[in-house]
Every structure is written in C-alpha cells, then in structure tokens.
Amino acid sequence: ICAVLYPGDATEEGKLLRLKQQYFLCSASLQDIIFRFKERKADRVSGKWSEFPSKVAVQMNDTHPTLAIPELMRLLMDVEGLGWDEAWAVTNKTVAYTNHTVLPEALEKWSQAVMRKLLPRHMEIIEEIDKRFREMVISTRKDMEGKIESMRVLDNNPEKPVVRMANLCVVAGHTVNGVAELHSNILKQELFADYVSIWPNKFQNKTNGITPRRWLRFCNPELSEIVTKWLKTDQWTSNLDLLTGLRKVCVHASSLASAFVIAHHTITV
Asked: Which reaction does it catalyse (predicted)?
C-alpha cells in the first residue's frame, strides 16, 4: 500500500491507491491511540470517553489525514458502542485542522463514487455529518441559506459529485489555523469567511517554525552553553543578531585548525 508515496491519481486505480494510503495511515494511528488510551484506563471505570480529548490531540496537517474524522466516528460508534452525539462530541473536541496553503492540492476533493466504492461506511458517516451541518445552518442562520451549498461537505454536482475534505475539516474540527498571521487572515477573510460568521472563535493562527530558545537552548543545552560562553552573554536567545559575534570565534578556530593540520603534516613527514 505504501510502496510509493502520493501515487499518481490520473487513473481510478491511482485514486484508489492514494485513498487506501490515507485510510491505512489514519486508521492505524487511531486504533493505536485508542488502544493506548484504553490500556491506561484499564485500572479505572471503563467508558470514560469524555476524558479522551483531554488526553489525545489529532492535528490534521492539510487535508490528507481528513479520513481521521469519519474513522474516529466509526471506531467510537461501531467498535466502542457510542451513540452519534457522544461520538461526535469526542471527535469534535479531539481533531483540529492546520491549513498550510490555499492551493488546490491542499484542499482535496474526493469523488463520492470512489469514496463509496472503497469506504462505504465512512461515506455514510460523511453524509450524516453533511446532513446535520446543513440542518444546523438552516435552523440557526436563515441569512446564510444562500451560501449553504458552497459550505457543505458534499458537493452534489450531478456531473462530478465530490467530498470537500477541507470543508469536512472545518465542520468537524474544534480549531482551524493557518501557519502565519497573513495566511490565517486569508483563511478568515476569504477561503473560510462564511464559516467564520458561524464559528468566529474556531479560527486561530499558529506561526510556523521554531525559535532558538525552544530549539537550541531547550533541545541542545550543551551547544547552547558553548554559544553563550563564546558570546559572553545569553541574550542571543531573544536577539539573534548577536550570533554574528560567532564569526570572530569561527575565524579564530579555523586558523587554529589549519595550523594544527600543517603541524601534524610536518611531524608526519
């Protein structure tokens, strides 16, 4: 199944293989997560599913792991015996969505026929999610009835019915974020603007990347101490420009290394 990452999807066989990959990885991860959760709860009263979201976070990076939503619902309902409302509450509090780009490849749309062929139970769950979302909007936001079709999880265009995976992520996740302030604003003001009017607090920003304080000082304290020693200050963790002071040290160290090599070569000869 995973011999080739992102197989070509120009053919139905390629589409099915790619969907199999996504499902395999999502299902394996969730089954392992649930197993570990139940194992750690073995010494306590069973059925503590309300605690699941406080112990587990499933962060969907772009739409490739979106099948985690219907798969978690399936596992909770069909395997663990939860009802829809309880399973949905657990799922909604567990999964969140990071959008990395507004490019089409990160906003997958899967053929309903392909989805139904490979994952009929998941398609049933997705259809129910779409139905309940539509009913919620119609009953609570009469002003948005004209926009509901573009917001739905299912695009039922008779020529090419698809599942909008990004819409599913937004509807099902407790939080949606971009990876930079500008990007997150685009999501809120353009791509997902209609959803923002329903769930204004669902949309956040998480700036992508790492900081020297978190990465170098915390993860590599020994190297951090060396840097601080040669700079004679630890203020570089909040002022990266101070790291330019290492250039003098590096030049000096390079000269010493060259001298050592020459001396070693002379002794050897």
From this structure: [(1->4)-alpha-D-glucosyl](n) + phosphate = [(1->4)-alpha-D-glucosyl](n-1) + alpha-D-glucose 1-phosphate
